[in-house]
Amino acid sequence: MSAPESADQRLGEYFDALERAALDSPGETSPEQRRAAAHGGLPAGQLAAYLDKVHRHAFRVSDEDVEALCHNGFSEDAIFELTVAASVGAGLHRFRRGVAAMDASEAGQ
Q1: In this predicted structure, what is the pLDDT of residue 74?
Q2: The pTM is what?
């Protein structure tokens, strides 16, 4: 019989499923675009600046930011998908860094 699954393993599976749903599911934007948005890899420009704001200072994103993107040809669906991808990417990055710091702390005890 295999060992029971730990809470850490289940949490990792949940986060992997979240990442797949946000980045790989069908949408108006391609999975490659969403993965780039999640990891800060879009080329410089208005969209990249907006997604950087989502990554670093999501609380500063305003209706005006979204309206400017719409005015410049981005659809609301594309903006939504890329915003979710950037948010999920930033959140998972922070979570994983936190877990790594806790693991390092425990290893040093």
Answers
A1: 95
A2: 0.84
